[in-house]
Amino acid sequence: MPSIKDRIIHGWNAFKGVEQYTPSYKDIGYSLRPDRPIFSRGNERSIVTSIFNRIALDVASVKINHIKNDKKGRFQQIIDDPLNERLTLSANLDQTGRAMIIDLVESMFDEGCVAVVPVDTSISPNESGSYDIESLRVGRIMEWYPDKVKVKLYNEKTAKKEEVILSKKFVSIIENPLYAIVNEPNSIYKRLIRKMNLLDVIDEQSGSGKLDIIIQLPYSLKSQTRKNEAENRRLELEAQLAGSKYGIGYIDATEHVTQLNRAADNNLMTQIEYLTRMLYSQLGITEEILKGTADESTMLNYYSRTIEPILDAITDEFKRKFLTKTARSQGHSIKYFRNPFKLVPLEKLADSSDKFIRNAVLSSNEIRSEMGFVPSDDPNADRLYNPNMPMDTQPQDFQNKNEIEEDYEDQNY
Length: 413
Prior knowledge:
Helix 2 packs antiparallel against helix 4 (97-111). The protein is 43% helix and 16% strand. The strands form three sheets. It has a five-stranded antiparallel β-sheet. It has a three-stranded antiparallel β-sheet with strand order 2-1-10. Strands 8-9 form a two-stranded antiparallel ribbon. The longest helix is centred in the last third of the chain and has 27 residues, at 296-322. The protein is of the alpha+beta class. The two termini are 59 Å apart. Strand 4 (133-144) and strand 5 form a beta hairpin. The chain is elongated. The protein has helices spanning 4-10, 48-60, 82-88, 97-111, 179-182, 188-206, 224-243, 268-283, 287-291, 296-322, 325-329, 346-358, 364-371, 394-411, and strands spanning 63-69, 75-78, 113-121, 133-144, 148-155, 160-167, 172-175, 213-216, 256-259, 332-337. It folds into three domains: 33-186 and 287-338, no CATH class; 188-270, no CATH class; 343-413, no CATH class.
């Protein structure tokens, strides 16, 4: 418990000194967050925005780590370094690692190809490939050059998006694996956007406040005199409705009114529903996935056809640009890990856990960690063994067997 003197000397309050700060002429304030991705090309007005956001959330829910493999290419450990911290905890001053991945995927679907730039590094990437990444940002590629790209990037020091020309050697350029479906000019997605824009035009016309009525007059309008009388009658009726407090007017007993403000009779909605189903099937997504009611097999198909190709594109490019050739030769890599128990129903979780423990795939504490329970203090909870077998000989047998197999493989490597 700190003393009163220590609290007076070292204490800090968030509101302390707030009146002393006066923004300079260089400081810029915004009512909305300026670094957020903004959808373009009409995407923000369509249902595909929810699809992009759903896919981005599912991609960001998978852990991406900087790891090290053993000599046989098997996962050995997670490297706790600045790059892994950028991917898992804090990507930059404004974004966490997960928020940066969401930004990346949403921008990738919107633009087709985006850049992930190491903004702050320990040394210049142009001088050496061995540098620590202190912040990462997602940027929009404005122009392409033979060995450089012009990137529109948010500068957190000026609170503005600025264009910079950077080398392709250290900028991760990630292309949408579903580019042909989403970003091609004649793709199903673009056709759906055009149809929905037409539907928006029809909705605006039907909701514009017009009456859309025709008045049948009790005489023929073949002569110009009769046409002038009809025009005067129309203007008189408009003046009645516009000047009335409740929009009430009157007509002659011989005049008839025909109302036309009904829904347009076309097959536009049918075409939109067809294109939506086609887009869902080509993206490997269903309405049940968006609603959260999809079963395990549907989710596995969605992850294998949609999520994993995106993760492969991200991790491969990060590995190619952010890891040197020497680091890759030493077993360093960028890898994603998906929780195998996330899609398992509760009634099957106990059976699956028993199989993993019994076959010495996972220990009891590893299972407890995935389920959100604290580790057990039992020493056997951290050992890989079959609890249904005798306890006195089994762990040593497993250990001797593994050591013999590893020695044999090392001799023949």
